[in-house]
Structure formats: C-alpha cells, structure tokens
Amino acid sequence: MKRGPLTRVLGEHPVGTAFVTPYVVFIAAVFAYPLVFAVYMSFHDYFFAAPGAIVDRPFVGFANYATVLSDPAVRRAFGNVLIFLVINVPLTVVLSLGLSTALNSAIRWRTFFRVSYYVPYVTASVAVVGVWLFLFNSNGLVNSVLGPLAPDPSWLVNSHLAMPTVAIFVTWKQLGFFILLYLAALQNVSADLYEAASMDGASRWKSFLNVTVPGVRPATTLVVLLATVTGANLFTEPYLLTGGGGPDGASASPVLIMYQRGIEQGNPDVASAIGVLLVIGVLILALVERRFVGREDR
C-alpha cells in the first residue's frame, strides 16, 4: 500500500504523534536546549553582558574544564556528593522496601501510616528544614537527648557529620515517594508465590528474600536511578541546612558550587563546565547501577 505524504510525516498513527509532539517540544525546550547551550558555554569565555551589547566570547577549548578540575572546592563538592549517594541510596532502598512491605500487609492504621510517610515529601522544604534546624542545632532536642554523647561541634556545623546529616534528612523527606513506588510494585507480586513458599516451609524472612525482593526488582532499579539523579542534583538541602555548603565546604554539592560560580560570581562558563562533568558522571554511575541492579530485569 502506497504511503501518502502526510503518513510519511506523521507515521502510521497520526493521533498518537499529535499527542506526543507537545511533550517532545517540552523536552527539547526545557532539557535539550539548555544542555546543548551549557556545553557551548563550557568551551567559550562566556560572561553575562548588557542586552543588545556586542561582545566577543572566544573559544577557549578545555580551559574551563582545567579551571574546574584544579579547583579544590569543586573536587571536594564531587567528593561530598559521592558520600551523600553512598549513604542515601542504600538507605532509601532498604527503608522504602521494608516499610512498603509492612504497609502492604494487613496492619491496623495502614492508611494513616501511608499518609504519614508521604507528608514530608509534599511539605515545603523550607518548613521541614526549620524543624530539622531546631532538632539538630547545638541546643536542639537531639543533643539534649544524647547528652554527653552529642557530637561537638554539633551535627550541621561538624565537617565530618554535616553531609551525612544532610543525606539522612533527604532520605527521610523523600521516603514517602519511594514507598509509593514499592507499594505499586508489590501489587504485582502474586499471592500464589507466597503461598507456595509457605507450603515449602519458608519463613517470612525467606519469603521476603526469595519472593518479594526478586518480584520488585524493576522497582528497585527505578528507585536506585531516581535516588542517584536526585542526589546528584542536591542543592536546596545544603543551601538551607548548612548555610550554603558549610562548614568550610564540607556539605557543598556540585550544583551549589555551580550556583555560586555562575550566579554569585558571574562565571557561567565555569559553572557550565561543572554541570557537564556532573551530567557525564551521573550517566556513568546510572549505567553501572543499571548493569548491576537491573541485570535480572532483562
């Protein structure tokens, strides 16, 4: 059957193409164009100029990347985000899977607990940060409970504890979203598998390891990838909790350094180089995680 010109342009399903097109335009405008423009800026001596001004932004090759890689603050920020991910991602997977399994069972007040875990996720970060600052400052509730065991300096002004504290805060705040993902995945695990395991004499722990964990593996892959991408884009929490990455850069993230270099200091070319390196690092990390965590999905 001969295909007409309209079919060649819109494909075999023009209605589907029409519905997809707005999203493609949105992705191109919000994600693709800024990424391409950031790559362009990272290879040029780019700076902000007055509207209508004629300026020369020469090509500088990898000079901006050399500046970034030689900056101790940037190197420390990338190290900080690795520490964050090592704490946040496993903790997110373990807690969200364990809590979703408990919430999926027949327990009292199940709906109440589901809503309670989701509330921090939908609450404004500024409001929640205020509570955590009250809890973890030097005279806060946590230190009052710990007494002589409390760290000195306190949690958020301690160079060794600032980033782990931020990681725990982010884990707690976003836990409700990942619990919902696991709850949806648990609905697809057949009850017959649990009955078969019970008939074979498997304990609840054995059933969890041999039925639940393999059954929700695709969700685990998604949770790991989302937690990694979210953690790599960390900005609000260290900016609010530690006063902009303190103490002395111990909780600074690459995105926070990008903001400081690009907006506060007026060096968008250097900030773009940091962003490109961050994108490359996240892609590599995501591919490694997809290979190992999701290897049984294929």
From TrEMBL:
The keyword Transmembrane applies. GO terms for biological process: transmembrane transport. PROSITE patterns: ABC_TM1. The chain crosses the membrane at residues 20-43, 81-103, 115-135, 161-186, 207-229, 270-288. Keywords: Cell membrane, Membrane, Transmembrane, Transmembrane helix, Transport. Pfam families: BPD_transp_1. Residues 78-289 form the ABC transmembrane type-1 domain. It is a multi-pass membrane protein. Coiled coil: none annotated. It is found in: Cell membrane. GO terms for cellular component: plasma membrane. InterPro entries: ABC_transporter_permease, MetI-like, MetI-like_sf. It comes from the Bacteria. This is Carbohydrate ABC transporter membrane protein 1 (CUT1 family). It comes from Kribbella kalugense.
